Description:
Blueprint: E1 14-19, H1 26-39, E2 43-46, H2 51-54, E3 55-57, E4 60-61, H3 64-75, E5 79-84, H4 91-96, H5 123-140, E6 146-151, H6 165-179, H7 182-189, H8 216-242, E7 249-250, E8 252-253, H9 263-267, E9 274-276, H10 286-300, E10 306-310, H11 329-339, E11 342-347, H12 373-386, E12 400-403, H13 406-412, H14 424-437, E13 442-445, E14 456-459, H15 467-478, E15 482-486, H16 508-511, E16 513-520, E17 526-531, E18 536-540, E19 542-548, E20 552-557, E21 566-573, E22 576-581, H17 590-601, E23 612-619, E24 622-629, E25 635-643, E26 649-655, E27 660-665
Helix pairs in contact: 5-8, 10-14, 11-12
Amino acid sequence: MPNAPLWPALDAIAYGGDYNPEQWPRETWREDVRLMREAGVNLVSVGIFSWALIETDEGVFDFTWLDEILDLLHANGIAVDLGTPTASPPAWFFARHPEARVTTADGTRLGFGSRGMASPSSAAYREAIVRIAAALARRYAEHPAVVLWHVHNEYGVPVADDHSDESAAAFRGWLRARYGSLDALNAAWGTAFWGQHYGAWEHVSTPAAAPSTINPAHKLDFQRFTDHQLRACFVAERDAIRARAAQPITTNFMANQHWGTDLWAWAEEVDVVSDDHYLWAADDAPEIGLAIAADLTRSVAGGRPWILMEHSTSAVNWQPRNLAKRPGEMARNSLAHVARGADAVLFFQWRASRRGAEKFHSAMLPHAGTDSRVWREVTALGRDLGALDEVRGSRVTADVAVLWDFESFWAQDLEWRPTEDLSHRERIRAYYERLWRDGVTVDFALPGHDLSRYRLVVAPAQYLLRADDAANLTRYVAGGGTLVVSYFSGIVGENDDVHPGGYLSPLREALGVDVEEWLPLAEGARTAIAWDDGSETPSDHWQEQLRLAGAEVVARNASGPGEGLPAVTRHAHGDGAGWYVSTRLDTAGLAALMRRVYDDAGITPARHDEGLEVVRRTDGDRSYAFAINHSARDVALETPGTDLLTGHDGDRHPIPAGGVAVVRETP
């Protein structure tokens, strides 16, 4: 039995993008819907930045243009993801409520004329967003075009932290609820250090600009608070809509691009998970960054299908160097997201804007018009997605989980760490890229999740580790799992306090090692590790003074301050094994490690042709192999079945350079 689709109103994979008809005259609207039908568009997002045109003054609404465009879209068979425009409050709002503007850590109050300008703690802002969300829901809950509600836009972008008086008051309230008393707050924050003890709640404020480094526990809690305040704004709008409308409600995440919101917590509040993803031009393998984002989105969605709410047809406009996508790249990007669980492919935006800050951002209908490569690729992609309708609702399964913990990342990014070379982003990317190049499909998970279904769990950067999460990982190993932990993990608890047993101590039972001292390397220093078979692998940045507590040595440092000391260890615990890697190995160097780990975990890497990405979606007895050729040469996928894109049937499916095959595999 196929899984339920994201929206019963559509019988296809959703295809389209942000549509901003308010930027164009009405004669352009009619041309737009004609071209949308030509391109295969069946879903557009409307109204995301139109607050000033809908609520023209406080409590004064004009729905005329929105009524007209929704009716026009519906008459042409195009469904609507209706946005609440609360990411960009109107000028009249700030004229009435200047206190709602965001205040930076140095006390600067940010002005009007951009987006994301309002404090999430502002009472006036909260009241205003509920008012407009409720008004939209009252008017359009029964409109036949509306199949989805889109609240706000990219929460926390471009700013999240607010140090206004209202934010400080709300922060104190949040801390009271979290700790209950000042004594508990002082204990959690370790305020005995540097004489920071608080004797009255009103003395506690936001961690604004200060002469030196601010208490890290204070800053970590403020990050948690900020995330909570943003999420509370979403919940307020969501509930206002839900009281009046039955369609699913979402907001667009930015997985692997904006790390200031805890997407695990946010995913619990939306009806369907959606994500915005843009290639980073400086990445020499952007398809891997894309895969991370897609796998993370699917993971926070609990494995359910999700929405690619935004990506680009070609170049963006906000990076230092905005590179155009090459022929076929847009299709590869889009189908890679579908391969990893998306049941919708949407873009920013439908028609390129002639004015404003994003006028140089690519679009489905570019400034060059329909006689352009981008438009031809847009229409071709629409046809291809139309051939994949049967894939909707199918799932991706993985044998490996990589730990991804936003709170740990927030804590690790605080000031005064042993070396600036420590980077959770870099470590996650290195381990993930090794798995990607080995053809191993990955889920992401929290250390407290049920991990029993995974043969292998990798912790590339688990700096903050709660005791109960460490116990969960230890049980996972004892139950037969294979755990790989990288350096600078298991260092602190939830308040950025070093574990009482020392570094890594919560995982001593699972890993069989203790860390006596860190041995960070000087800038530019290069070292190597010697494996038990006599081979060597380059390493850098970091070494440690380890004390064995039951583990066996698999590799030792061949040079550097830790010369001769254990670099990689393996510890048998219960029915499983815990591996510890106390130095930095790059993606190529991790191959030597992961060969041994795969053997331990009973995993056979797929090892496809270099540059060929293969991911499977399954639904009961049906299996679909997505094969995406990122290389400049022709390759082939060896599997029996039918390519849904070309109709080719056989045991071997040729895939041209830069091409894609989607094979319904023969059981």
